[in-house]
Amino acid sequence: MKILKEIADWTYSLAIALAMAIVINAFVFQPTRVVGSSMEPNLHNNDYVFVSKLSHTFVGTPDYGDIVIIDSRVFRERGVKDDLADPVSTYLSVVKLAEVDTHIWIKRIVGKPGDTIEIKDGQVYRNGSVLDEPYIKETMRAAAPKKVTVPSNQVYVLGDNRNNSSDSRYIGPVPVSHVLGKVVWVL
To answer: Where do the domains of the chain lie, and which CATH numbers do they carry?
Structure first.
């Protein structure tokens, strides 16, 4: 009987610790792994980053230049269920027990609500002024000009490796509710 009580105590303690870890990862702080080359030269495939989730939890708008993780499924609502499920799959990917969810992207904020973002001649303009972007990998290949006004409660995100990045040029502005956190530390 003493062994059964000990096993029950350990099981209870592990369940509480796991629940606390999920809540912390969902709403406070989360490790994650970079997948792909869209943020080169600053972040590389398999780099580990730590993300503060406080801006997402308290619905804050990120600042220009912030590197954030987003849910790229911009045409669906996010709920608490997503906030709880995403960290579990991300944690499993960090310890390499599962692949990273392909809908979670890491990008840089270049536009906030009300900004007009224009991409022309390989340059990004915000409200008519060309952005100084020393962090990008290389000059963006010229494509068809694009001009977007960022709606309220949304942001415009781009990868630092503009020639190899899926970002707001393809999915459009991202709802602030889909900005899951800000990268605060890179390993």
So the answer is: 2-111+153-186 (2.10.109.10)
